[in-house]
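haha ok so turns out i had the wrong file open the whole time. this is the CORRECT one, sorry everyone. sequence first:
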Amino acid sequence: MNDNILAIANARKSYDGRTNVVEIPSLDIRRGEFVSFLGPSGSGKTTTLMMIAGFQAPTQGSILLNGRSLVDVPPYKRNIGVVFQNYALFPHLTVAENVRYPLRMRGETKERSRRRIAHALELVGLTGMSDRYPRQLSGGQQQRVALARTLVFEPDLILLDEPLGALDKNLREHMQVELRRIHRELGVTMIYVTHDQTEAMTMSDRIAVFNRGKIEQIGAPEDVYYQPATPFVASFVGDSNIFEGRMSEGGAVSVPGLGDVDTSRHDLPAGRAVSVMMRPEIFKLRPQARTAAGANEREMVIRDSVNYGESRLIIAQSGPLSIRTRVLGVDATHIAAGDNCVIAWDPKHVHVLA
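then structure:
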């Protein structure tokens, strides 16, 4: 059996016949994966999701589910579940009636539906609430009903369009854990649209980073974070220091104001213009020593410190060059603006973008 449940090839979407708002040469989603579409507003992630769901038609290209073309198949015949941010519950129906709705549309009787409804509500933690109406539920509970309504008919694929965006931080984090639990228990394939990097990093098997209608990179969260394929991915995903420089001998990059930065990149010729990405957390910070800083160390002055509780963002400067570093909060109690310091890093954590 083909391991891919969804295959998109040469898919494009244009509203005016001239400009493509989405352009995807190839995208395969494996059976049982949790894939996040991550990108800024207007990057094409929701349009892509809507083409998969059938609410928008691609201008050209193919979309296959289990090897079957979806292009001319109406949404209600695709066996795809969709969960929206606004819940889309029927206010005049009870929880059980809302969850039963897709089964009723498929001709299931009440008797045959009861077991499946009870199982779906148990999965989302709403056992005992079947007779309540949406107005009697919290936002988080309403979102669980929307999810149960999607799970009850056992879809081949579940699409989630920023479903947690309306929830507060604590509830959103709780629902992230619940979604991952449900995904593990059922093994169902999920595609999750979000602009929240933390959400994508914590929940996904793979992340597809969208920008201007195209996927700039798709890979495991750690690959997208530590080995971004493009400058956009490096700047959009997480916090980073990105410096322009030129390759020197031995894999080092000459960066104005920082000198030669050792890297593990040895396949590029000397003189090649490159970008160097250094994540804030790769740096070690210590008070300035009496001896001069060694290789992969620089003497700097602390210009600012931002307290995040569990961590602290330290902005250090040498001449016109500023570097953002991040240290544990308990290790930063002695750090103050104006102090001299030394920052150090391991070359294997320096990423070169050619």
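Helices lie at 45-53, 95-105, 110-123, 139-151, 169-186, 197-203, 221-226, 231-236.
again sry for the mixup
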